[in-house]
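[recover] target loaded
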């Protein structure tokens, strides 16, 4: 059934446990993601970015997802990832997303507070959960400017004033695939965890060593965002398939190994987080 971040994260807050939040990049991958979660009996946070909405269409994403979610045996959150435009975030709430991220992390603090509050005021009466970000998780390529770390006192005040349901923090991760192993600032996370009462979110979790993924779940991280580590094996599977089958031109045959590689990567992350009850 359809769920919000509160439905799936609140019970994990004081446990060393987290849920994977996986990006679905196009319509066809949505049923594969849901099937993967069902086979592991794992609660699912399915994330959709603006780029996906532009390609696939918001109504198509919602109608396909809702049809599958209604029939599913596991709680599924359909979450708009990294919404930067207030009107667009509101449109996603209106369209049927059960959860949204408003990402004002590049804005001055006061502006981030103001806009996040506006989204919370819009979302809450509709029963939609809101994630926001304080500090800024950058990208490996450096695109979009430098990352800045989350200040614990800042995070505490931000969470209190905005009343968000979940808070993304910056503790050394980046979006994309790292050139070197990232070094997480666990002491900073511990101090954020002591001061912030809402479930915390780790963005840029692709490429973070397994031990660190497990470690952060003990200090308030309840949602682990994974996109690049799904896209990379998807693309590699296509390259491998085409090398072995250079004359194949049936899209379904070319996509099949890519879907399998995506599902395998999702299941591995779910198992790492302890969600492998059907295995
Ligand atoms: P990665 O690029 O590390 O997978 O990060 C994903 C993410 O944070 C999505 O919001
Ligand atoms: Zn992110
Ligand atoms: Na990453």
């Amino acid at each position: 059934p359809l769920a919000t971040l509160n439905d799936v994260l609140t019970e994990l807050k004081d446990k060393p446990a987290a849920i994977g939040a996986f990006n679905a990049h196009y319509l066809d991958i949505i049923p594969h993601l849901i099937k993967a979660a069902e086979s592991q009996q794992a609660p699912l946070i399915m994330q959709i970015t603006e780029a996906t909405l532009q390609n696939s269409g918001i109504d198509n994403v919602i109608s396909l997802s809702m049809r599958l979610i209604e029939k599913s045996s596991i709680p599924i959150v359909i979450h708009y990832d990294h919404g930067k435009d207030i009107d667009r975030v509101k449109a996603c709430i209106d369209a049927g997303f059960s959860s949204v991220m408003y990402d004002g992390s590049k804005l001055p603090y006061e502006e981030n507070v103001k806009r996040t509050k506006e989204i919370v005021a819009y979302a809450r009466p509709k029963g939609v959960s809101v994630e926001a970000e304080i500090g800024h998780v950058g990208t490996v390529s450096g695109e979009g400017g430098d990352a800045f770390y989350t200040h614990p006192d800042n995070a505490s005040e931000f969470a209190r004033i905005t009343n968000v349901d979940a808070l993304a923090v910056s503790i050394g991760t980046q979006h994309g695939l790292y050139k070197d192993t990232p070094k997480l600032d666990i002491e900073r996370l511990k101090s954020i965890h002591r001061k912030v009462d809402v479930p915390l979110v780790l963005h840029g979790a692709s490429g973070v060593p397994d031990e660190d993924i497990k470690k952060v779940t003990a200090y308030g991280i309840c949602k682990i965002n994974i996109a690049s580590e799904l896209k990379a094996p998807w693309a590699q599977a296509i390259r491998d398939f085409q090398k072995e089958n250079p004359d194949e031109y049936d899209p379904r045959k070319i996509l099949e190994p890519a879907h399998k590689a995506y599902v395998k990567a999702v299941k591995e992350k779910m198992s790492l987080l302890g969600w492998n009850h059907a295995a």
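[recover] notes: The chain has eleven helices and nine strands.
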